[in-house]
Amino acid sequence: MRHDSRLSRMLHVLIHMDRHEGAATSETIAAMLSTNPVVVRRTMAGLREKGYVRSEKGHGGGWTLGRPLSEMTLLDIYEAVGEPAVFAVGPACDQPACLVEQAVNAALSEAFEEAEKLLLSRFGKVTLADIARDFDARMARYPASAAHAEAGWHS
Amino acid sequence: MRHDSRLSRMLHVLIHMDRHEGAATSETIAAMLSTNPVVVRRTMAGLREKGYVRSEKGHGGGWTLGRPLSEMTLLDIYEAVGEPAVFAVGPACDQPACLVEQAVNAALSEAFEEAEKLLLSRFGKVTLADIARDFDARMARYPASAAHAEAGWHS
DNA sequence: AGTCTTGAAACAACATAAGTTACATGATGG
DNA sequence: CCATCATGTAACTTATGTTGTTTCAAGACT
């Protein structure tokens, strides 16, 4: 089953935007993600609805942050990209009336819900500012990459 | 992203097999899962390799348990069906050299690995006998379903 | 021999994320 | 006010992986 990478991509973009002067166009962002501007708009639309980013049309337009990184958690962004299903494996529903199936699904659901609760609780505690700090630490450790990353945008 | 229901289905089947006299054919099992006999063979093949079930050809052939339910955990079956990816969302790999992407993926991986560890640790502690016991309790609570379920196989 | 059953390959159906094309809408700047 | 730039959105295509189906070979029992 293929991974949904929207959460990861949006986090990536938001941190770059924080280090970037002025608005970033969908095209610029798309190049950074090795993808298409329309995919960027589609995914960013969810973030805009929640106020995490703003978009402007026309000359000098593009995307800007709607609030500081310290006020966005992984959970916020996870929800903004549409709260995709966390798990790739799940209960079957072949014979809903079967008590065996019900017992099986109860056991699985219990375990899955517990793991999801832990995951989302962790997501809620990590801000994008935390990740940006980790980025700074990495940049300090690998000065060779610094110039590249310092520009904010790839290439 | 579509759910992988193989784990749930196999648990369902194994418990029914435990309550069933003699071998169960792929066709019978398929009817129980509202699916196709070939799908059953395909999925059960993984369990056979690990010794959780045995298969016999010819008249009176079919599938039988290879060991008691008390000696199979959810983790065992999860591994036997091919250890599918647990999570439907995952890190992107659009710019592997980008330190921002690396920091993002590190934060995500940490959270995911912790949740996966919890999930699999839970799976390892639940035996199929535990689920069968829960089934018994459910049957006692819903006597109307008892006759249906008592037969072991649906319909 | 004939029938039942698994084993396995090959292919079709289906769902979803991702990518693409095309065009409408709005904002800026000359 | 018009050309240009950028987002907004719909529709379509592609890619990938689970599930379903067809088909036939091979083994086992009567």
| Helix/strand structural class of chain A | mainly alpha
**Total beta strand runs of chain A:** 2
- Biggest interface and its residues per chain? A-B, 64 and 65 residues
Q: In DSSP terms, counting alpha (H) and pi (I) runs of 4 or more, how many helices of chain A?
A: 7
Strand content of chain A: 5-15%
Strand order of the largest sheet of chain A: 1-2
Oligomer class: homodimer
Quick overview:
2 copies of one chain form a homodimer. With 155 residues, chain A is mainly alpha-helical. The first copy, chain A, has helices spanning 6-18, 26-33, 37-49, 74-80, 99-125, 128-141, 143-150; strands at residues 53-56, 62-65.
Description:
The structure is a homodimer of 155-residue chains. Chain A is mainly alpha-helical and 155 residues long. Helix content of chain A is 58%, strand content 5%. The first copy, chain A, is built from 7 helices and 2 strands, in the order αααββαααα. Chain A has helices at 6-18, 26-33, 37-49, 74-80, 99-125, 128-141, 143-150; strands at 53-56, 62-65. Chain A has a two-stranded antiparallel ribbon with strand order 1-2. In chain A, helix 4 crosses helix 5. The longest helix of chain A has 27 residues, at 99-125. In chain A, 38% of the residues are buried. Residues 147-152 of chain A have low confidence and may be disordered. The interface between A and B is large, with 64 and 65 residues. The structure holds a DNA duplex (30 and 30 nucleotides).
